[in-house]
Amino acid sequence: MSSDQVFSRRLELGVKLAVAALFLLFPALVGFSVWRESVYQQLGQPPAQPIPFSHKHHVGDDGIDCRYCHTTVETGRFAGLPSTGICLSCHSQLYTDAGVLEPLHESERTGKPLEWRRVHNLPGFVYFDHSVHLAKGVACVECHGRVDQMPLTWRAQPLQMQWCLACHRDPVPRLRPHDQLFTPSAPRIDEADAANLARMLKLESKERRTDCSTCHR
């Protein structure tokens, strides 16, 4: 090492790598914070929507069935968001002059769908199928909570891996017959009836339900 060289080459390289790591770490932390906010930190907090839709009014007061708006919930992986046409099946006649519904009428005029913000959002590496869960007796309320009591919709459950696994390990207490799947106020059935229902529905084995490939494909 020459007399005028203060730092060794190895130390100089280490400093450069540390600086580069800091530059890479900052955007990574920002990205993680945004992702965590979108996935985990909305528990109990309703996100802003183009229209402040009230499940309490539509489900709790008017008794509208989940399937009227979420048309693919029994047949597809995704429940589906209501189209402008579905909303207008009522609101072409009701509250037509309400200012809060102007985005709906704007959507009708322009043909541009309303940009609803997802409340129950899962990471891209998680596979979830609504139709399978309903076919196996898991009611909407188990994941979505008492939407019939929500003036604005918020996330009722964390939807984190351990929460999902708790149900997959022991789903029986959470099962309901088909005629109660879409009734948020319906109480859970008793243990004996739930056990009988589980046998009738022929649930997958615990090993299969908790296998990594079941939710991560």
UniProtKB/TrEMBL annotation:
PANTHER family, alphabetized: CYTOCHROME C7-LIKE DOMAIN-CONTAINING PROTEIN (PTHR39425:SF1), LIPOPROTEIN CYTOCHROME C (PTHR39425)
Domain annotation Cytochrome c7-like: ranges: 126-217
Entry protein name: Cytochrome C
Tree of life domain: Bacteria
Matches recorded under InterPro entries: Cyt_c7-like, Multihaem_cyt_sf
Pfam families: Cytochrome_C7
Gene3D superfamilies in the cross-refs: Cytochrome C3
